[in-house]
């Protein structure tokens, strides 16, 4: 208790140093556990990529799309046909791959009609005979296919989603922007005409109103669209069965009545996808490329956790190194210039071991307290803090990480105990009585010589005074 009491007195006396040590230990413990947890979340996210059941679609490349002329009906000759997709499927069969699913989407431009909704105008609109129409009618076979819409993912904000079971054969989704432009609401009707025959019309019922999740439209398909049909807010979404029954497309026709088809193959494993991707490459026409929306979405989703982990990978070792140096410096500062205290304690009968143990406690107590508080705070706070940077991935400290940091903390305490506890061992008894700083041995000798000379002079003066005092007496005695 004597040692602990003395250590506590020193810690409270130098409270700024004590608080600094505790705070540094807290920050280092919290930061290291945060960095380790984020790194593990990143590694898990990257490794889970191999567990995906990826899909594949063949789409026009960006360079080919740049050549597109939306006012040229002959552009449809660049579309992929059913024969192309049959060739792709033969690769699946030849590789003995069992698909996890097959879905499709299709689109054609359609014309606005008199007395019905009008499309949002483009910046350089052309006659509908050239463009095929002012709207784009786009169909999906499933909600999963709709989620992979190349115009952007959308959400229904009013009404209902499309029915893929056929319960709403005339149901359609329109954009909130188009609804606002025409004063439309759920349950209203919208009539459009075929791209190659304006007299052929079909009427849809507004089943729902959508908004795009991503505010940034692909270049040329937002408010910057030259043609109205290219503005994604002019897209009318329907189920595939509704699209077939509408009569708005004709695969055997010509011009804009030819649908832009897209088939999606869903694979059961990443290995099957890689095999298919390698073997189908030679069958993909020039100007097209195979992509996997599922893989792209996954890669995009792990960007935040990868970016955060790349920063913590650098910051964590730096934090540990700087923190260790700072803690050691503060601990050594706490036992420096205490030779007089050590000497007084030794002279009072206190052993070097007890003094060393006191110094060790002074270095360990604030670091241990700060480290424990930092670990506890990290266990509770790492997950919500990481979620602020990467919401889709949970960075949860594993038990192995916590124990790893506990042992690092124990090792740090041992080093600090040795660095501070051995301080009394380097104080020799002889040095306790050595001259203080600023004293000089020659000056001491000169002072001693001066003191001796002054003593001799005083003695001589006393002798002289004594003799003078005795003489009158002797003279008096003699006269008597």
From TrEMBL:
Residue ranges of the TM segments: 21-39, 314-336, 357-382, 402-422
The keyword ATP-binding belongs to this UniProt entry's keyword annotation: no
UniProt GO molecular function: transmembrane transporter activity
One Pfam family in the UniProt entry: FtsX
Region annotation (Disordered) ranges: 443-480
Annotated Acidic residues bias: 443-453, 462-480
Domain called ABC3 transporter permease C-terminal: residue spans: 318-424
Keywords, alphabetical: Cell membrane, Membrane, Transmembrane, Transmembrane helix
Membrane association type: Multi-pass membrane protein
Domain of life: Bacteria
GO terms under cellular component: plasma membrane
Limits of the MacB-like periplasmic core domain: 21-247
Subcellular localization(s) per the UniProt record: Cell membrane
Record-stated family: Belongs to the ABC-4 integral membrane protein family.
Protein name, as recorded: ABC transporter permease
Organism: Bifidobacterium samirii
Organism phylogeny: Bacteria, Bacillati, Actinomycetota, Actinomycetes, Bifidobacteriales
